[in-house]
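User: Just a sanity check before I run the rest of the batch. Below are the structure tokens for the first item. I only need the designed sequence back.
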């Protein structure tokens, strides 16, 4: 029997994994609160789940603090916050690494950090809670053509590891979720082969099950996570050459298809 959450807040809740998680927790009997920038789709999710919609741009720290306060006041304390808002942006050109990285960090790293800072004192006052940060297996190693997205997700994983111990002392259970490729709008920015793609509902089921279990990270699918973990354990010089060779092979295959 898994833990039953009373109130669940999901950022990036208007589509993809966020929407699938909203449906999952609504079926489990939780009061589901969703946030994203897309107000129209957000209202659809709220109607679908019988929950509430709070439109939000996670890159605006003042808006994040205000919305968390409104949720706490209107809906009650949040048991589980899934900080799922994320973005993937294509580079405008080969030289667009700094601006591309900045855009990714603002959403994928700082957006989560603003929300965590707003949640932390409230959860601490309530005696605890669970916060899940949705990262990516792309953050495990420096995958070619993911310099912006992968770097932001790698930083999010580091951020979660660095905060885990102090949040545990405050009875806040911090979890890192590291999915592989999930069929969502975010995949449109990827310009490389994507193995083992999962449907959003399947990913949501795996995440929800993982959040009920002990342990820091929910990484899936295993057949992708474990090879990347082994690759990460290699010396950096070997790793970059292996990744470059894999990219060349993928490019040759794509030209033939």
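Assistant: Here's the designed sequence for the first item:
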């Amino acid at each position: 029997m898994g833990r039953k959450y009373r109130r669940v807040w999901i950022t990036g809740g208007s589509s993809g994994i966020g929407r699938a998680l909203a449906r999952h927790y609504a079926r489990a009997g939780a009061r589901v609160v969703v946030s994203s920038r897309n107000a129209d789709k957000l209202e659809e999710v709220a109607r679908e789940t019988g929950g509430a919609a709070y439109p939000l741009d996670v890159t605006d720290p003042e808006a994040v603090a205000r919305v968390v306060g409104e949720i706490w006041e209107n809906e009650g304390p949040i048991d589980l916050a899934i900080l799922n808002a994320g973005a993937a942006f294509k580079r405008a050109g080969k030289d667009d690494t700094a601006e591309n990285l900045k855009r990714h960090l603002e959403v994928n790293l700082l957006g989560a950090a603003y929300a965590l800072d707003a949640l932390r004192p409230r959860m601490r006052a309530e005696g605890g809670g669970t916060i899940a940060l949705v990262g990516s297996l792309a953050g495990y190693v420096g995958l070619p053509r993911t310099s912006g997205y992968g770097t932001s997700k790698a930083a999010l994983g580091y951020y979660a590891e660095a905060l885990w111990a102090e949040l545990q002392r405050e009875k806040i259970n911090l979890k890192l979720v590291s999915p592989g490729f999930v069929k969502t709008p975010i995949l449109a920015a990827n310009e490389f082969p994507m193995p083992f793609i999962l449907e959003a509902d399947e990913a949501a089921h795996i995440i929800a099950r993982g959040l009920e279990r002990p342990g820091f990270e929910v990484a899936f699918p295993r057949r992708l996570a474990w090879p990347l973990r082994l690759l990460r354990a290699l010396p950096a010089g070997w790793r970059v050459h292996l990744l470059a060779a894999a990219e060349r092979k993928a490019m040759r295959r794509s030209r033939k298809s």
